[in-house]
Amino acid sequence: MYDVEKRGNVPIYEYLYKCIRNDIVSGRIRNGEKLLSKRRLARQEGVALITVENAYEQLLVEGYIESRERSGYYVSFDAGRFVMSDYSDDSSRSSNGNIYLNHRSANNSIGNIKTDNTSCKANNTNSRANNTNSNNNISGVIERDIPQVPDIADFVSQRLFDDAFPFDIWSKLMRKVLSDRNPECLAPPDPCGLPVLRYAIAGYLMRSRGIDADPDNIIVGPGTEYLENILLILSGGGALTAVEDPGYKKMGLLCERAGHKCLHIPVDRDGLDVSVLEGTSVRLVNISPSHHFPTGVVMSAGRRAQLVDWAEREDAYIAEDDYDSEFRFSGRPIPPIAAAYPERVIYMNTFTRTLAPSIRIAFMVLPDKLMDRYRQKLSFYSGTVSSFEQLVLAEFINGGYYERHLSRMRNYYGKRRESIMRLFESKEKGSINRNDTKETHDNTHADRSYIQKQKENSETGIFVPIKDVAGLRIVLKAPDSLDDEKFIKALSDKGIKLSCINDYCYSHNSQYDHHFLVSFGAASEADFAKALPVMEKAAMECM
Known about the structure:
There is one protein chain. The chain is α/β, with parallel strands linked by helices. It contains 17 helices and 16 strands. The longest helix has 32 residues, at 401-432. The chain is globular. The N and C termini lie far apart (56 Å).
């Protein structure tokens, strides 16, 4: 039994999840062993059934256990194969107290901080924000001819709703920075990022992601693409780099443009297929394990351990892009690999996704060995993000505004996601009985064919949303008889922008046929309500 009275301030479900996870990782509960049923464990521990359900759900999504139909839950992690770091409670995690001391000092007397002339420098190159480009298409999407007609809906744009941005607070902090620190605003940017921002980021990473980051190992830049260029240089000219397939296609292009050979690794239900890396000379692998783009897959615990084991043996590094980690609407946040293996993992994230595409500030945390290499090779580079923007963002984080903003955003988009999903369900159910008398007559062959194809695809309708609890996108599955290219072109002609998952594949992959990616970051329920009938009719015509 687990003594829930010792949990402190930790929620019961989280305490139970951590206890079971630690037993699995340590090998006390072995791979393949069956766990107690939810009801039996709830009775044994004297807790509510929903508490056990939440704990099991978190273990399930992280890949420590699996559910077998009509049988129960079984451990799916082989602790004997991997040497795992201790997953102790956050309260017992050893942390660098200097982060918090310096963080408080920076927050109270930022003007007294001096830039270290020997600190690292960053490249002064032009770079686009990592999530968007100039025409608001997702980076890496195949360019399509957009008709000169008013858009019904844009399900490709990675913009956020304008009213979600904290304009009042941001403008207040801008005035404060201009008033209190105008000399610093005009000074050249610190090469690795202003110390106050790097300390603020380090404190935030410890609080939110359990990463004990040294502020001196943090590099601030104008986007993850810029940071990726730095990593490619540090990897050495001509080195072999690996990226996910499907994935963020611009990373592959960056590798090729930098003279690196690029290996495209397939992604399955457990994440990146690590077995493909065996026997290669890859020295840097780019992944988004907590919420893969674009499929939404969470890399399982076993696959993560396998990847770290490979990196240790091959003296390679893992670039972990924690994309969309802030937008998880159910369960506990997925722990980043960097929290347990900082010596092998480069943690990367951006504020573009949570604040606005125009705020081009990203960062990465380098392992000590790579940071030393950075200082030796790239110390002549210049800063890339304006001091003014960095100071405002530091105030935003240090004042607690950023975390409150994230909480509001999760609530805001979580409710919007639920509304959109309900809209899809109601539209799908209603579409089977819909009679569009303006276009067809009752009992025509087109109507009968349309209804039959919907019934073959799903009881609920023509488009089936794929279950996911994170991110600002929904994956829709359409009938196998749909002509995807014809469908996308038909929607484009009608003013609806939509992308396919195959748009993010290195080469066409038939397993992603008829899967479409729908972004709702800047699309409202009204947009969906307006677009769905058009999408249904276009799909019918393209089957």
